């Protein structure tokens, strides 16, 4: 039997909520989710590796990819560009494998417009004070940038209604289990399976 086309999962949420930490944990586990590495024009943080955490690139090259429609989505956030190269996503889905994107909210809204059948998961902090603690704990941004991120976070949380699922990142292990459960549940949806099983009945 031909393998069904893969499902596209989109994980996003406010900056500092822990998207990268969650994805690192999921990638270390045995799952059917293939990770799509985003492209960005921001500078690497300490410990980040090009081609592993992000594809780091220059703004000129990024803008070229926008013009040539080589990105599934892209967004500008705090002066830097972030985006998802489209070729890897399309090829992986066509093989029947699932893909998960870890992207900013602006980018997720673009994917929703361009690929509405994707499954959208909003990663939520336990509280705004905890979100601030996580951003401050990075030790990588000055106070004005931190306040700007928190202001944007409030606006992004108000967009939660555009998502299919909400996962609270209270503990990394629990958040990962919830995301994996969503993946399993989506593959068991009646509307995805009905036609296939009706064909089995007709073949008897």
Automatic annotation (TrEMBL):
Positions with a binding annotation for ATP: 13-20
SUPFAM superfamilies hit by this protein: P-loop containing nucleoside triphosphate hydrolases (SSF52540)
CDD domains noted in UniProt: GMPK (cd00071)
GO CC annotations, alphabetized: cytosol
SMART domains xref list: GuKc
Major location (coarse): cytoplasm
Subcellular location, record wording: Cytoplasm
Domain annotation Guanylate kinase-like: ranges: 6-184
Keywords, comma-separated and alphabetical: ATP-binding, Cytoplasm, Kinase, Nucleotide-binding, Transferase
EC number: 2.7.4.8
GO MF entries: ATP binding; GMP kinase activity
Enzymatic reactions: GMP + ATP = GDP + ADP
Sequence similarity: Belongs to the guanylate kinase family.
HAMAP family assigned to the protein according to its UniProt record, in alphabetical order: Guanylate_kinase
Protein function: Essential for recycling GMP and indirectly, cGMP.
Stated name of the protein: Guanylate kinase
Species: Lottiidibacillus patelloidae
Organism ancestry: Bacteria, Bacillati, Bacillota, Bacilli, Bacillales
């Amino acid at each position: 039997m031909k393998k069904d086309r893969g499902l596209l999962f989109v994980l996003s949420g406010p900056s500092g909520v822990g998207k990268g930490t969650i994805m690192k944990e999921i990638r270390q586990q045995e799952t059917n989710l293939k990770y799509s590495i985003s492209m960005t024009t921001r500078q690497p943080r300490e410990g980040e590796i090009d081609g592993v955490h992000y594809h780091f690139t220059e703004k000129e090259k990024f803008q070229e990819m926008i013009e040539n429609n080589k990105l599934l989505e892209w967004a500008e956030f705090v002066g830097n560009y972030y985006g998802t190269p489209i070729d890897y996503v399309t090829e992986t889905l066509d093989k029947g494998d699932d893909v998960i994107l870890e992207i900013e909210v602006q980018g997720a809204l673009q994917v929703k417009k361009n690929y509405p059948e994707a499954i959208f998961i909003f990663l939520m902090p336990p509280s705004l004070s905890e979100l601030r603690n996580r951003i401050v704990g990075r030790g990588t941004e000055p106070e004005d940038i931190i306040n700007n991120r928190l202001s944007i976070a409030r606006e992004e949380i108000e967009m939660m209604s555009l998502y299919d699922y909400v996962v609270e990142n209270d503990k990394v292990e629990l958040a990962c289990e919830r995301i994996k459960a969503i993946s399993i549940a989506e593959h068991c949806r009646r509307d995805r399976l009905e036609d296939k099983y009706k064909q089995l009945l007709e073949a008897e």
